[in-house]
Structures are given as structure tokens and as C-alpha cells.
Amino acid sequence: MILLTLWLFSNRHMTATCSLHVNCGGNDLADRENEQSVLYEGDANVDGGAARLYKAARNWGLSSTGDLMDDNNFQNARYAESLQGNTTRLSPLTLTYFSYCLENGEYSVKLHFAEIQFTNDSTYKSLGRRIFDIYIQRVRKDFNIEDEAGGVGRPVVVPFNASVTDSILEIRFYWAGKGTTRFPKAGVYGPLVSAIDIDPHFKTCSMGGKKSNKAVYIGVGIAAPFLIFLILVVLWR
């Protein structure tokens, strides 16, 4: 985490943003939300490894640590795909998504989950349990996707609120050794997430370093003629 902290500190001078949408484990995906097109940036091309720090093109990235020693997969591609095409990113130990150069303020964070490795039937695959912790400025212990969604294969969105004060928002998933490991299948335990959605609670946002607040433009529009009038009065006197 020291490398991640130093890297974030060195990138704070970049242009501020106020949202983040990630399609975890998948490719870029355009979705329609509130009558607007929203691009969920994919990270399917990011391989894992015992420790991996990935920087995306637009002020975000991810860090994955740990190795699934029982999966016989030396490439360690940390994502899985269901038969329905739902993609998720999996990590053996810790999975951290971070958004840097965020405008300071209050944000809504929505985490999308779907348990795609276990089943709801009467076979041994239904006995698997995935339990991990979620850290977003505070901790939610022993999170279980299946319990939250009311079954496996069902999507569920879990909302959080976060306050950004230093331009950085970090979302960390941590496997604390709970749940099943080699049963019912080796190499599928650890934190798992499908998508991340971060949007500001505030209505104004700096785009390209300039405020998109209408009140600013109205104030400038009123002040400019008054300033010209004042200059003419001074010159006349």
C-alpha cells in the first residue's frame, strides 16, 4: 500500500473529475441511466499476479494482491465470467479501486455485486460461502453477496456515502479468511465485485479546471458592465 500511496500523491496535480464508472472484469460498456449515456470503463485486460498496480487512462486504477495457490493458474487473470455474460473481478486477498483527482465533496458510491461461482440448487456447489470486508472510509464486516442479493446469480447494488477531502477516494475489499476456500471449487474465494459507480451529491463540478456553476456566470455577467461603468466615471472625473 506504500507504493499505491506514493503513486497517488504524485498524480494530484491532474485535472479534477467528479465521477467514476467501472465495469469490473469486463470491457468498456455503455449504459443508459437517467436518460443519459454512461460509459463504464472496463478492466478486462488487467492481469493479476501476487501484487499488481494498474493505472487507467482517466484518473483511476486498481491494486490487487495475493495469489490463489490452489487454482493451478500461473497467469492469475483476476476476473470471472458467468454464462449470462456478467463479468466480475476477483482477488485472492485484497482488491482496491481508487479514484484520484476527485473534486472534494460528498459522493454516492454504488457497488454492484452478483455471486456467479456458487449455485442455489441441492448440489454441493450450493454450500460455498464468500465472505469479505468492504472499506470505504468505514468498514462493513463479513459481507456476503448471496445473502445481500437473496440468492446466487442475482445482481444487487449496495449504496454507500463518502466524503472526499483530499481528492482521493479508495474502495478496498479484503478477504479476512472467512467463508469457504477449496470447497466447492478451488480458486474462487476472496472478494468479488461486478461494477463501481461513483457520482457526486453536489450539482456543480469542475470540468477542465473551470466551475460549471451557473451562479458564477451570472455574477460575472452583472459585474462586468458595472466595472466598465465605474472605469468610465473615474476617467470622466
Uncertain segments are 5-10, 208-223
CATH-derived architecture of the largest domain: Sandwich
Number of strands: 17
Question: What would CATH call the class of the largest domain?
Answer: Mainly Beta
Q: What global shape is seen? A: elongated
Helical stretch tally? 3
Helix vs. strand class: alpha+beta
Return the CATH topology of the largest domain.
Answer: Jelly Rolls
Query: What distance separates the N and C termini?
Result: 66 Å
**What portion of the residues fall into strands of 2 or more residues?**
35-45%
Topology:
Elements: H1 2-9, E1 20-23, E2 29-33, E3 36-42, E4 51-55, E5 60-65, E6 79-81, E7 87-90, E8 94-100, E9 105-113, E10 132-135, E11 139-143, H2 145-149, E12 156-164, E13 168-174, E14 192-193, E15 195-200, E16 206-207, E17 210-211, H3 214-236
Parallel strand pairs: 1-3
Antiparallel strand pairs: 1-15, 2-3, 4-5, 5-8, 6-7, 7-14, 8-13, 9-12, 9-15, 10-11, 10-13, 16-17
3D architecture notes:
It contains three helices and 17 strands. The chain is α+β, with helices and mostly antiparallel strands and 237 residues long. It has two domains: 2-202, Jelly Rolls, CATH 2.60.120.430; 210-237, no CATH class. The model is unreliable at 5-10 and 208-223 (pLDDT under 50).
Q: Characteristics of this structure?
A:
237 residues; six-stranded mixed sheet; alpha+beta; Jelly Rolls; elongated; 17 strands; six-stranded antiparallel sheet; 37% strand; 3 helices; 2 domains
